[in-house]
């Protein structure tokens, strides 16, 4: 492994105050090779990171002072890599300016995940803010698009639900062992997935001792999942996806039901996944149903498959931490790949 | 409504110390017409109910003293109706003796839910303890089998998951608006569903901040669900059913994916359910995704349907409180039907 | 017991959409003698209660339509009793107008709990909105001020923390068995106590897996506690009170440390409480540490006392459900007392 | 800093399967200088750590195979340092044999925390299993006994509650700014503090939505707290200590009420703590009430002080993660001190 260019280990974070941004701060603070040199925020400009997020007091990162979030200021900072932990629609402008300034952009928002601006408008309700950049962007789950990440200037990290669904399904569809029709994904997320915004729906007393589906009939994440599954299957794939809110802070549990192609068994499917992920540090194929607590605070995705001879279907279970492998951890993993660092740096 | 026979309003509870039994005590304590005259327990014989379950101190029921659980003693008590809140395999013996003594038996266990002793052995692992009684027993969800309950001496209350799945599906299958193949039910239950037994798997620190599937590939409740769906469809129905444990005390959330029969829309399905349940006090058809908290502590089942034109399928959501409509509440509702009382007595 | 005047069983609720208001709706809906004839809300005027609070669909109360909250409209309604579940500072105006219209007012806010408008201004930060009514108001915990409640037109229900602290302490101070100096009360509340307002501090992901003190150095409830303890002790009492937020929906747990007067033992204190509450349906003196779950959803207050010979102090534990005995249940109990109904109506 | 002796960086863990043991595995796995060379367990002998604790699959530590726990085998292993994460009463025998074999013992149990075998017998109910070792043992909280830890062969890590109480109180008592009489500590712990043993009391459905005090009138941890506070004050100190169980996995919140000595203010007390902990990496003096979530998964202790002019007392709040600063983290910190490593190694 060659020594990374110094500029690529200086990083900036825009939008550090949400849950994904906070997790990004935690991961980069203990990253042995990255140095956070700037943090940007509209709300907290002028305050130190330690003041805004008391858990960081005593950590290196705590003394950084928030600069006012502004695309020009982000472009002018000394970091070679800019992480965007911003709402969709807002990230694009920052990305455009930072790219022009020669920076690598790692975007945690949904702005550059879709190849097609029309689909974006359909799902996200508004014209795409920078459609000209869509072609440059790489849809990024390192296990599935590592090579492209290595050279891309604009890395669009996959969403949380989509990561949990694609890691098991993409290799199976590519290998032709899974019927692309009739796939059902029923997923549950911890409440941090809803973000750190004041809203009655996400109050403790509304979410605790409660479980509910939401986002029906078409959650936004469906668009990126279907785009990527279709690409893997070589044909248009439409799936049923039902997200739920579960009373926990973190974790995504996806339960996927699908049909093996004729003559294929669950053992064949498992073999495909074992081979695909044999050397991957963050994907674990399990014998027992995976539990979200086994991946809490980690960048792992745990997957298990179960046969259902009565129906001829297979049940695939997949769990991640929505804030780590589903957001900040994936972004750091992409950063490691892009900067030529060991992929597990700061993550294991 | 005729005055009920006095003996039918004197009731006994066997196995009051589990979560379903405790809920049964709570419901019957405030029931305006039932009188609990005896409670039986192996573990707590000689102690008062108030000592064993401190929440009941100050309630009428608290002063009852547990009699040692023994079939002969149950048969000899003065109650006309006996509720069995016992583990499967144990309930059958009590039922047999109580029936011989002329009592009505309302069983919350799985012992009399299956028509076929072979299926019982297959799913519950052991010969059925009283196969001769299977023909007498009524599989009981009052909304779906009210008439039979009115005269049956042996009422086998449906299980928790099965109730949440059958209430939406049975009328649709009967009406022929749903394809019986390819049904997927992904359900999540609160941890009280696992019962009040000391086991590391159900410790607070194991279940909190965690979500996991279990019971794969064949949860026991699958047997009764398929029996009843097959009966409704008039053909053998095999479904995919995946239960999960969610970090909450109470509640079941079932997410069901199915296909309308040719030419049928979600509006047609909804119409069937609205008509079927038009006069039912405990089933509510919703426009929005139902939330388990809306039914916590109640005997309601809330159901909503969502169209999915992209796949031609329909998503059906159903929620109940596993300890009420999924256990004790359903048992009391059966009791009301059987005793000729207003069906909502003690439940609304 | 004489037949209550019909007008006293027709009741109105103003501000039904918060957590206390919702609990009040639930309790009054199943109250055998009260009839809710009007509900008022600014936010929901024109909508039915069932639309706004889906858990009530199918209940009698669900069909009531919210009238716009306005003191004149409240004064003009046909109810003889008006429950105010409004923020402090807002309740007073409604109370004034409703009282003039001859109605009984049962106020769940803090507006009429203090005898002294100066103390109100000091603790609640603003001039008292209706100081002339303070003299008319009764500070109401039925167990401690039942006689006054029977005839008062303006019943100021005690706060949640204060109820849990006063029920054990007032009788002990009155009996002279407790030293009024040096009392420490460390209390924890479920998050519903913070109300149903959108605020980041009360988001699920902020409160779950977290415990914190707040309201230091002087929580507002301190003012009413000290007023009432001083009255009971016959001298000015200043206590240390530290409220905490605990990750649960409901429940208050108060841990009180105090010193018996010379020569008195924990047995003497216990005797005072046992005698005081011998005939009270909602206070239970326990041998074991009380648990909030034993009172969840009930109007009970459970109390236990423990000796500490090493320090000469006594530890008093007290638990209530903050939304029931700490708010709506207490209000209904007051209503029962005021309307001449059995005190447990709708509560047991 | 001199290079540590190699043998001191090879470590063994006895009793890795409880919650403290698991946390110890996690911390030592990512420790940059320690190498876990052996893990011992009665229950899991022959199984790999990864099999027993699935969260570790893919980590270095996962491939270690449990050796049967046996004092002789522990003594014979190649590690220079042995961590004992065993129940009290069991740890002593292992310690005795390991010490004889020349190993450093870091004990997480209560076996060597008390100086006096009589007090041990009084609080822990049984003769001390190795009283002759009590004199050798160091009661260890590195911030308060660092020098002694550097050379001790037997390091008795302080308990979880005691750490949260002593870190604020010991410096204040030593400085003579706090009255040693009348101290009250009301603490709440997450349920992992109860350990990983199957017991109905710690089931999810028993602990969730519940809060309760326990261990009254004398929790075992009181013995070590009073021993250490007395030592600091130079006189016998008796405090009131009430532990509670709070519905969360991790975290201890201690609320301490005490009286400053004549003429001293909260500012004086704060100054003492700020000076004492000026260079300590793991103690943070806060302005706002500390929250357990700010220390979850960390080795920090956060402390804040609040004045109470109305009573002349001071309220001191202190939070830690019971499994980290209250157990495994403290043990690793002690290890770092003893092995001459940077004290924050593997902890920040």
Layout of SSEs?
Four copies of one chain form a homotetramer.
Chain A: H1 6-9, E1 10-14, H2 19-29, E2 35-41, H3 49-52, E3 66-68, H4 71-76, E4 81-84, H5 91-100, E5 104-107, H6 117-124, E6 138-140, H7 142-151, E7 154-157, H8 160-174, E8 184-189, H9 204-207, E9 212-213, H10 221-233, E10 240-245, E11 252-258, H11 266-276, E12 283-286, E13 301-308, E14 313-320, H12 324-339
Parallel strand pairs in A: 1-2, 1-4, 2-3, 4-5, 5-7, 6-7, 8-10, 12-13
Antiparallel strand pairs in A: 8-11, 9-10, 11-14, 13-14
Highest CATH level, the class of the largest domain in chain A: Alpha Beta
CATH architecture grouping of the largest domain in chain A: 3-Layer(aba) Sandwich
Q: How many domains make up the coordinates of chain A? A: 2
Output the CATH homologous superfamily of the largest domain in chain A: NAD(P)-binding Rossmann-like Domain
Assembly type = homotetramer
* Pair with the biggest interface: A-B, 46 and 46 residues
Low-confidence stretches of chain A: none
Helix content of chain A: 25-40%
DSSP helix count of chain A? 12
Quick structural overview:
Chain A has 348 residues and is an alpha/beta fold. Chain A has helices at residues 6-9, 19-29, 49-52, 71-76, 91-100, 117-124, 142-151, 160-174, 204-207, 221-233, 266-276, 324-339; strands spanning 10-14, 35-41, 66-68, 81-84, 104-107, 138-140, 154-157, 184-189, 212-213, 240-245, 252-258, 283-286, 301-308, 313-320.
How would you describe this structure to a colleague?
4 copies of one chain form a homotetramer. In chain A, 32% of the residues lie in helices and 20% in strands. Chain A is of the alpha/beta class. Chain A has 2 domains: 6-158 and 326-339, Rossmann fold (3-Layer(aba) Sandwich); 161-322, Dihydrodipicolinate Reductase, domain 2 (2-Layer Sandwich), CATH 3.30.360.10. In chain A, the strands form 2 sheets. Chain A has a 7-stranded parallel beta sheet with strand order 3-2-1-4-5-7-6, with helices on both faces. Chain A has a 7-stranded mixed beta sheet with strand order 9-10-8-11-14-13-12. The first copy, chain A, is globular. The model of chain A has no long low-confidence stretch (mean pLDDT 96). The interface between A and B is large, with 46 and 46 residues.
């Amino acid at each position: 492994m060659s020594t990374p260019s110094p500029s690529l280990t200086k990083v900036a974070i825009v939008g550090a105050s949400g849950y994904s941004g906070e997790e990004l701060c935690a991961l980069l603070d203990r990253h042995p090779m990255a140095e956070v040199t700037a943090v940007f925020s509209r709300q907290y400009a002028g305050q130190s990171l330690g003041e805004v997020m008391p858990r960081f007091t005593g950590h290196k990162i705590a003394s950084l002072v928030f600069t006012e979030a502004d695309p020009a200021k982000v472009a002018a900072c000394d970091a070679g890599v800019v992480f965007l932990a911003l709402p969709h629609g807002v990230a694009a402008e920052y990305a455009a300016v930072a790219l022009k300034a020669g920076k690598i952009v790692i975007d945690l928002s949904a702005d550059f995940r879709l190849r097609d601006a029309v689909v974006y408008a359909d799902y996200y309700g508004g014209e795409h803010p920078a459609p000209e950049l869509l072609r440059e962007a790489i849809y990024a789950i390192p296990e599935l698009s590592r090579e492209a990440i290595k050279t891309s200037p604009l890395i669009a990290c996959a969403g949380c639900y989509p990561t949990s669904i694609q890691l098991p399904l993409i290799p199976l569809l590519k290998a032709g062992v899974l019927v692309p029709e009739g796939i059902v994904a029923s997923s549950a997320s911890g409440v941090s997935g809803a973000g750190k915004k004041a809203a009655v729906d996400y109050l403790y007393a509304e979410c605790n001792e409660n479980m509910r589906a939401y986002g029906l009939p078409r959650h936004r994440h469906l668009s990126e999942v279907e785009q990527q599954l279709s690409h893997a299957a070589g044909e248009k794939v439409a799936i049923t996806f039902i997200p739920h809110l579960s009373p926990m802070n973190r974790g995504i549990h996806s339960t996927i039901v699908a049909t093996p192609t004729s003559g294929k068994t669950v053992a064949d499917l498992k073999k495909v996944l074992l081979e695909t992920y044999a050397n991957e540090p963050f994907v674990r194929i399990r014998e027992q149903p995976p539990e979200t607590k086994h991946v809490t605070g980690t960048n792992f995705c745990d997957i298990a498959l179960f046969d259902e001879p009565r129906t001829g279907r297979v049940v695939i279970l997949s769990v991640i931490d929505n804030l780590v492998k589903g957001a900040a951890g994936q972004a750091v993993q992409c950063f490691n790949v892009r900067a030529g660092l060991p992929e597990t740096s700061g993550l294991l």
